[in-house]
Fold this sequence. Notes:
Blueprint: H1 6-13, H2 16-28, H3 34-61, H4 70-79, H5 89-96, H6 99-103, H7 116-140
Helix pairs in contact: 1-3, 2-3, 2-7, 3-4, 3-7, 4-5
Amino acid sequence: MYYVNRKQIEVILEQIPDLNEGLRHAASSWDGSTMLGLVQERCLHLAVEVVTDVGSCLIDGFIMRDAGSYEDIISIIHEEKVLGDSGIYGDLTSLVALRKPLVQDYFVWERQALHPLTLVLPDILEQFASEVRRYLDQELGSEVTG
């Protein structure tokens, strides 16, 4: 029997609409300003955290192999078919690769440039949430417990 905290996963996934609003605002209003650069930076960072936190919950709850890195979290959930045939594996891998630059090397992050993921990430995050929910329903049924 698996113990998957679906409520926790759902609380995390519910952050996606706010992140998408920030990403879309940054992209549509982009002027290279520090303020929009910081909005973009924080949204990208939180998107990394959402994806890796949900991935970790799935890995722990379904007793999948241990992840050795943030990138490995994405590989594991891809191998375990959490992402289905959505085609977002590569984009999520690129997103997670931003964690170190955003968190540790923030002082050299190029805030005046619109990052390419900012334009496409809202759709990717929506697909991610949909695939996670599909996987949970497939594996556990549709009742949210935990």
